[in-house]
Amino acid sequence: MISLSASNSQNSIHAKHGLAVSVQNVGLTYTTSIDKRPTLKARLKSLGRGKKHTRVVRALNEVNLDVHYGTVLGVIGSNGAGKSSLMRVISGIVPPSQGRIEVHGSVSTLLALGVGFNPSMTGRANVYLGGLAAGMSRAEIDAQFDAIADFSELGDAIDAPMRTYSSGMYARLAFSVAATVQPDILIVDEALSTGDAHFKEKSLNRIKELRTADRALILVSHAMATIEDVCNEVAWLHKGKLMARGNPADVIKQYREFMQVGKSAAANEDV
Amino acid sequence: MSAPVSIYEPFRAGLPPLGSYLRSLWARRSFIAEFSRSELREQNYGSVFGQLWLVLNPLLLSGVYFLLIYIIGGHSDATRYGHLTANLFLFYLISNSLTGGVKSITAGQRLILNTAFPRVMLPISATVIALFKFAPTLLVFFVMRTVLGLHYSWQMFWAIPVILIALLMGLGMAILISCINVYFRDIASLLPYMTRSLLYLSPILYHASDVSEKIKTLEVVNPLFYLLDAWSQVMVYAKAPDLYSLAHAFIWALSIFLIGSYFFLSRERDFAVRL
């Protein structure tokens, strides 16, 4: 018995070598309240009866997904497919309702730009604020500060309060801060489409630089060309289910065909 | 490869592993400091006096309350004014912690939905902000008490444990109320009345010794009553505080802190879904 269990654990270590994220049978349901008449009277009436106006939303449904180191996984799907929910579950922000997630390594998330930024503060102060929020240390930010400022192309504006920034400037600085974090696993949700064409290309190149054998990247995007260009694997989600996964060109082709077939296929989907 | 492994499973109310929780909280200490500082600066953003308001606020506040007790009491002496100011300032350390804490989770929605971090950081930074506001008032008070001619003594070092107890209490209250507010938003509207009641029920506009014995026994349920009495003994009369007062305050502070932290930590994984 003892030797058996020992060899088992040995095997599992070998089997998991290089595994970055393992999503096992994960389901996620949200309960949202539906108040047709959000008045005090309606609320008091329903109070005693234990009747709640809620609707259960299944954001994820038995999703299984393994991501290995060295992979750049693109996640695609229509609006409400559960892409962002999956990212939140993997990064530990939202606990799953069912299943289990194993994450081997440090995770950094870029789910929204400018998280932790304070618009009253200068761009400079926000580089520190955003960097610290993303889990960098002050010394790391000190060392990287010039690189961040250069990348953002803000020039003197870095010392102006961020509420004076245009939305493009804001997004540029936010991306520059986020792209300097060097985690084992980086999760990026729709953050590549910031700024003008010039900056978009620059940020895409930055993501490409981050592709190394000892890192796993997960990108969520609606930009199929980008996904095909950057990723070496694609997962397609639809209504909380994993529809396909594999070679980018194949999966994107399937996804495109599916979306064009339209409503009849989508209706079949609920089976 | 010995990468840290994190496991995420369905939410159950229960404490997270405390060791790793505290480690990741400690790793974020400079974020707490930076976050608090920027919030504080934002509050006075665009005003002419800017950060000077940190000193002006307490000065004006004590002026207004002095007017009140002068009109009601009809007399004023140095100790009475000293007592009012000292206790008002300490009271505001706790009440600022509460008012900052109540919405710390609900207002940190963007941060919570997009980054994984120990959520307790948000109410902690509410208390840090309250402490930043308290520090200049202490300075103002020492200038004031010198002008008033109150005497100094070594016993005044008792102020350190009293401040620590007050901080623990403020922190515990901030943690508790921020968590309550996630499930019961109405608490934010009730809070001003709660702090106002605490203000009048505590020995700030009057001395603890002015209160009848009967009421004094009832005040056992007021977490701030004996804390503020001890503070006044130390800061105004330069005497060692009554040990009973100190123990009463400490037991209250520790209980609130432990209950609040338990409540918060066992539920914080659920917050992202509730916002």
Show the helix and strand layout.
The complex is a heterodimer of chains A (271) and B (275).
Chain A: H1 2-15, E1 19-33, H2 40-47, E2 54-68, E3 72-76, H3 83-90, E4 98-104, E5 107-110, H4 123-133, H5 138-152, H6 167-178, E6 185-189, H7 197-209, E7 216-220, H8 224-230, E8 233-238, E9 241-246, H9 248-261, H10 263-268
Chain B: E1 5-8, H1 18-27, H2 29-43, H3 53-73, H4 78-102, H5 104-107, H6 109-114, H7 121-148, H8 159-183, H9 187-201, H10 213-218, H11 225-235, H12 243-267, H13 271-274
GO molecular function, one term (chain A): ATP binding
Family (chain A): Belongs to the ABC transporter superfamily.
Pfam families (chain A): ABC_tran
Task: Give an overview in words.
The complex is a heterodimer of chains A (271) and B (275). Chain A is α/β, with parallel strands linked by helices and 271 residues long. Chain A folds into 2 domains: 22-106 and 184-271, Rossmann fold, CATH 3.40.50.300; 112-182, no CATH class. Chain A contains 10 helices and 9 strands. In chain A, helix 4 packs across helix 5 and helix 4 crosses helix 6. The two termini of chain A are 43 Å apart. By secondary structure, chain B is an all-alpha fold. The interface between A and B is large, with 41 and 33 residues. Strand 4 (98-104) of chain A pairs antiparallel with strand 1 (5-8) of chain B. Chain B: It is found in: Cell inner membrane. Chain B: Its main location: membrane.
Biggest sheet overview of chain B? none
* The CATH top-level class label of the largest domain in chain A: Alpha Beta
Number of helices of chain A: 10
Assembly level: heterodimer
Subcellular location (chain B): Cell inner membrane
Transmembrane segments (chain B): 52-72, 84-102, 122-144, 156-184, 244-265
Pfam family, one (chain B): ABC2_membrane
Membrane topology (chain B): Multi-pass membrane protein
